[in-house]
Amino acid sequence: MAAVYDQYRPGYPDALADYLFDKVDLSAESRAADIGAGTGIWSEMLLRRGCAVVCVEPNDDMRALADEKLTQYSGFISVGAPAEHTTLEDASVDLITVAQAFHWFAETAFRAEAARILRPGGKAALIWNSRKTPDAFTDENRALCETHCPDFKGFSGGQTQNKRAFASFFKDGEYTLKVFDNPQRYDLAAFIGRHLSASYAPKESHPAHAPFVRDLTALFEKHSRGGIITMPCDTRCFLGGV
């Protein structure tokens, strides 16, 4: 599953990393913590810019793949721990990032942990790649997932619209939302792989798996052009103190 996730999950726009480096005033001397780092897709974008990144990930398979890819960076640090108990030292990071993972955390416990490990003046960024709405393709795609995926709760876990969670997490309920255009282009194999990499996708042994793949194929054939489908997406970053 980790390999499928790493191969098919979308990346993030360079402009997002540039934005965070500017807003948090990061440099080669800075230290970030990427919580729920997965296979390091987002972590690598920070590492490329020279700052140290502590990648906190409890899943052994995900973390092993990140370790294999990111060991080339001198600032890479790998930690096997949950978001709510990172084992990091008090006031030890300038920036906390959470990409595609906040909806898995115990919100109250993670907020306390984030406040503990952030240095004074540090910030947290909650990041999602999200489908653009309203959009006819997105609506059809959502309906298909609702039909075949019992665990589907909306794209991005439905979290990008959860203003209550953001108000509770960020200090004084204050945060800045920055949106970046990030369309995703796939051939058929990648389109299906992208969906099967989602946590809500039925496993191969599940009776809904084959119908899910069948209907994804039909959706691709309906909307693709020249063997490529473009999914209208953006990247949303919620940034604030904790």
Word description of this protein:
The chain has helices at 2-8, 14-23, 43-47, 60-70, 107-117, 136-148, 163-169, 188-196, 209-223, and strands at 31-35, 52-56, 76-79, 93-99, 118-131, 176-181, 184-186, 229-231, 233-240. It has 242 residues and is of the alpha/beta class. The protein has a domain at 2-132 and 154-183 and 233-240: Vaccinia Virus protein VP39 (Rossmann fold, 3-Layer(aba) Sandwich). Helix 8 crosses helix 9. The longest helix is centred in the C-terminal third of the chain and has 15 residues, at 209-223. The protein starts with a helix and ends with a strand.
Low-pLDDT windows of residues: none
If helices are DSSP runs of H or I spanning 4 or more residues, what is the number of helices? 9
How would a textbook summarize the main sheet?
Answer: 7 strands, mixed
Distance between the termini: 33 Å
As for the CATH topology of the domain at 2-132 and 154-183 and 233-240, it is Rossmann fold
User: Helical residue percent?
Assistant: 25-40%
CATH homologous superfamily grouping of the domain at 2-132 and 154-183 and 233-240:
Vaccinia Virus protein VP39
SSE sequence, one letter per element: HHEHEHEEHEHHEEHHEE
By CATH reckoning, the class of the domain at 2-132 and 154-183 and 233-240 would read Alpha Beta
CA-based shape = globular
Q: How many whole angstroms does the radius of gyration measure?
A: 18 Å
How many strands appear in the DSSP assignment?
A: 9
Strand content: 15-25%
